[in-house]
Amino acid sequence: MNHKPIEGFSKLPKQGKIDWLVNEYLEGNQEYQNILKQYWNENADLQKLHEEFSENTISNFYMPYGIAPNFLIDGKLLALPMAVEESSVVAAASKAAKFWIDKGGFKTTIINTEKLGHTHFMFSVEPHKLLHFFNFSLKKKLLESTEEITANMRKRGGGILNISLVDKTAEMPNYYQLKASFDTVDSMGANFINSCLEQFGKTLRQEVATSEDFTQEEKNSLQIVMNILSNFTPDCIVRAEVSCKMEDLKDDSGISPEEFASKFKQAVTIAEIEPYRATTHNKGVMNGVDAVVIATGNDFRATEACAHAYAARDGQYRSLTHCTTDNGVFRFWIDLPISVGVVGGLTNLHPLVKFSLALLGKPSAQELMSILAVSGLAQNFAALRSLVTTGIQKGHMKMHLLNILNQLGATEEEKQHFVTYFKDKTVSHHEVINEFNRMREK
Q1: CATH number, position 128
Q2: Which of 1, 36, 117, 399 has the fewest CB atoms within 10 Å, i.e. is most exposed?
Q3: Contact, 382 vs 96, CB < 8 A?
Q4: Which phi and psi angles does 214 have, rounded to 5°?
Q5: Does 422 reside within a domain?
Q6: Which of 176, 195, 160 is nearest to 344 (CA)?
Q7: How confident is the model at residue 322 (pLDDT cuts 50, 70, 90)?
Q8: DSSP per-residue string spanning 52-110
Q9: Can 299 be counted among the known catalytic residues?
Q10: Catalytic annotation on 396?
Q11: SS3 244
Q12: Catalytic residue status for 4
């Protein structure tokens, strides 16, 4: 090995962790110490708060926190907070919001809010015998055993919605599930769901052990493999949509409304049938979704996993968005499965998360679902609008221009020159370099 492993890294103080990393991996270069320290917050209490969000924290990693204004959602005008590092995402969302503001804005519908979890277990027993035991004894005991855990959630209007026994023995010998659905109201509910499921596992073991329905050999075969929520929540879903008369689809690219609608629908259809395109198409949707998810302190990895699983639910990966152009009306919508919360987790701790939720009017979890679906739909509309008219690079590279100039060490005066220079041109890295060198040679 080229480095020595370390024991007790987590027990070292923050400076001790940094010293070890710099000396072991970075040749003792003090510059790297300075990089880490310049991102520490000057407020020691706030810095400590951030450090306690995660383990082995040695600094903060900044992401741009931007605002996309003019979102008319279900009659309310909102400004969306977006934490994202990719250039053009906030600008694209803002442009789409502005496009639809005088056409009725975005409309949303909460289709369902069920979340799921499973107790996965192995049991060498005839399925009919287990099903009888579940229906006439176990299900009631499972609900009774979790009454204390669910008491507060039930007071808020949520709790366990249903429990079912799932026979998976055709796919894996002796494999069964207790599948439970939950309503967690305004919390994402991960801890609540997992606590219920772990109790299910304990209750299942206890009830089987004392039941007269099974032989001792069968009882001995029971193995609780795991109790865990699922991030695939196809029954926790929101629809967001926009629509207008075809003639209202005026675009500044010079393309007619009819041609725009036709090409736009074709682009969506391609993403519905071609996985190579659908992957990039849905990545663009999630550009908008994840940026607001992060800004509101929710789990963007869970959001991503669920959306992509849903996109492949029929065995082929497809577009999350859909489009029709029937009877002279253009309609564009998304059905997005998404599980988020506005209480618990970082929502009560992270100052910028508090700011984001206040900015959005302190939404309920369902209202935040709607906002997230709209952000994804807007982002996708903006991307497809560019693709079927001017092409994606014209707008994207203009937003990327400052990144290139910052890498070159351009002055503010030089940056302004480039903004003017590319006003009527498509930005390319090659052309920026050429023009920059030409300026410096002068």
Answers
A1: 3.30.70.420
A2: 1
A3: yes
A4: -120, 150
A5: yes
A6: 195
A7: very high
A8: TTSSS--S-----EEEEEEEEETTEEEEEEEE--STTHHHHHHHHHHHHHTTT-BEEEE
A9: yes
A10: yes
A11: strand
A12: no
